[in-house]
């Protein structure tokens, strides 16, 4: 029996709608960014975060009270929320921005998440999110949120174990030299990794019955103004261009021929 004094866990999972990982990225004609008129889906790192939140509930049974997902994006981002709800989340929050609005930067997202957490009457014990989004590859939001909240943080998680009675989370994370184990006090910010060597999990496919059930789950709509947050980017993208196309190489028979080719190409060097 679980002591009645033990607080039931509330998990928040921020997710992002991004260009699908299988799409070949192209620069738009105006060279202001990439062409967004392509297939979009849930950011793969965030998909792993949703799956892990559901698995934490499956492992802890009735110790988890709720799993809430949140996204900041245009109206079409509602589809991404429904996918997360079909995977097993209980409710969702959509901080809606205009379709034409620039994508918010990590600091703006972190401030919006902080404001949202502070609005939750039941509180938040665990925030689990992807370590980065595959569109901007910033990898900063989780760390910034932990700094703003003053909470424990564990990044690049490859294994997560939560003990609601002790109010701690044991996280195994990847570092350059191998694996590192951290013990964090709740509340905690966890970011999930996607490497195949120590993959945290394999996200489930949403079944048709769960997709139908997801349509009835509550989705709260908010604006940045209601959260008291300014999502205006601080950085300006001047121009976006595609990398230069590679020119085919050639073979040389010896060093003298190589030096001749380099001189013809205008490559010169000085002896050390």
UniProtKB/TrEMBL annotation:
InterPro entries: ET-Flavoprotein_bsu_CS, ETF_a/b_N, ETF_b, ETF_beta_N, Rossmann-like_a/b/a_fold. GO terms for cellular component: mitochondrial matrix. One of its GO terms (biological process) is fatty acid beta-oxidation using acyl-CoA dehydrogenase. Its main location: mitochondrion. GO terms for molecular function: electron transfer activity. It comes from the Eukaryota. Keywords: Electron transport, Mitochondrion, Transport. The keyword Lyase does not apply. PROSITE patterns: ETF_BETA. Its cofactor is FAD; AMP. Binds 1 FAD per dimer. Binds 1 AMP per subunit. Belongs to the ETF beta-subunit/FixA family. Heterodimer of an alpha and a beta subunit. The electron transfer flavoprotein serves as a specific electron acceptor for several dehydrogenases, including five acyl-CoA dehydrogenases, glutaryl-CoA and sarcosine dehydrogenase. It transfers the electrons to the main mitochondrial respiratory chain via ETF-ubiquinone oxidoreductase (ETF dehydrogenase). This is Probable electron transfer flavoprotein subunit beta.
